[in-house]
Write a sequence for this structure.
């Protein structure tokens, strides 16, 4: 039985191996995965993001517990910081959500962000496809918390959950940086700390400033949910808020447009990566790329002018 068939048969080892192929950019496996594209399931995707130290992983674990009570099979992609030396994840599966490791209906995979802007791992979309093929629904993507750059999560998820904590400078900076613009649900985690009420007031004030759609069009006001993830408090309320947002999307015919935007973004990302690879390795493009690269490094040409010259030369 080939690897794709074993993934579809829900073999845990096959899933792990398939995700390793994804992370390594194995073209043979990715071609096989592309062959399944037309028949891929479309599970719900939940994005979890927020500043460092906000308790995203613990919150994700409590959310998994709540979903398992509903007999859901949960797949998780946890995007970790990369090691500057090996390029691998500094935090592994065993350090995250350990209480679920013996549950065959939960699969957690850590992937290295490899320094990509937005904190999303290279191949995270493909990883979601593998988990979908393995019968997991919903999928949770938890991203490394680096503030404003987390806007990429909004392109990957159906529902984006932004996690903040009281008395945390990073939470204040997140509010100022505009991360609230991507929030479908806002969580105040560690809500037993001083400052929770003030933070909630600030969040609601910030949400009121978000642009509203034209009159008559569907409008979603993100709810604010308080949790204490270490005590498993608030998980059910969070799940209810996530379900309400999904109901809003489906009830107003918006889920299809969300997924369309995701596909457009994915196409653009892959096209950009493919073109860059062609510039660096293609028989015709590489010499032209190296020539303008030399001009830029010598200080004779600006990067912007170099790109224009390169595109003109290649007639693109």
């Amino acid at each position: 039985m080939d690897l794709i068939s074993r993934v579809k048969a829900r073999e845990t080892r096959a899933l792990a191996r398939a995700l390793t192929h994804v992370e390594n950019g194995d073209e043979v496996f990715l071609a096989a995965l592309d062959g399944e594209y037309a028949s891929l399931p479309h599970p719900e995707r939940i994005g979890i993001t927020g500043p460092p130290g906000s308790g995203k992983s613990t919150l994700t674990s409590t959310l998994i517990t709540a979903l398992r009570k509903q007999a859901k099979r949960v797949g998780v992609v946890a995007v970790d910081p990369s090691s500057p030396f090996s390029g691998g994840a500094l935090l592994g599966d065993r350090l995250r959500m350990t209480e679920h490791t013996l549950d065959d209906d939960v699969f957690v995979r850590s992937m290295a962000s490899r320094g990509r802007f937005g904190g999303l791992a290279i191949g995270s979309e493909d990883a979601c496809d593998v988990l979908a093929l393995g019968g997991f629904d919903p999928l949770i993507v938890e991203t490394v918390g680096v503030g404003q750059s987390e806007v990429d999560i909004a392109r990957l998820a159906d529902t984006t959950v932004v996690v903040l904590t009281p008395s945390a400078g990073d939470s204040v900076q997140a509010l100022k940086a505009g991360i609230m613009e991507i929030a479908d649900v806002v969580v105040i985690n560690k809500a037993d700390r001083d400052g929770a009420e003030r933070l909630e007031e600030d969040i609601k004030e910030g949400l009121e400033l978000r642009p509203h759609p034209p009159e008559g069009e569907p409008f979603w006001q993100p709810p604010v949910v308080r949790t204490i993830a270490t005590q498993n408090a608030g998980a059910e309320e969070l799940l209810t808020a996530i379900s309400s947002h999904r109901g809003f999307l489906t009830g107003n015919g918006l889920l299809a447009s969300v997924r369309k935007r995701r596909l457009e973004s994915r196409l653009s990302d892959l096209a950009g990566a493919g073109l860059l690879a062609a510039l660096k390795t293609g028989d015709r493009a590489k010499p032209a790329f190296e020539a303008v690269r030399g001009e830029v490094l010598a200080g004779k040409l600006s990067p912007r002018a170099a790109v224009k010259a390169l595109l003109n030369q290649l007639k693109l």
User: Anything to note?
Assistant: Residues 83-90, 115-119 have pLDDT under 50 and may be disordered. The two ends are 44 Å apart (CA to CA).
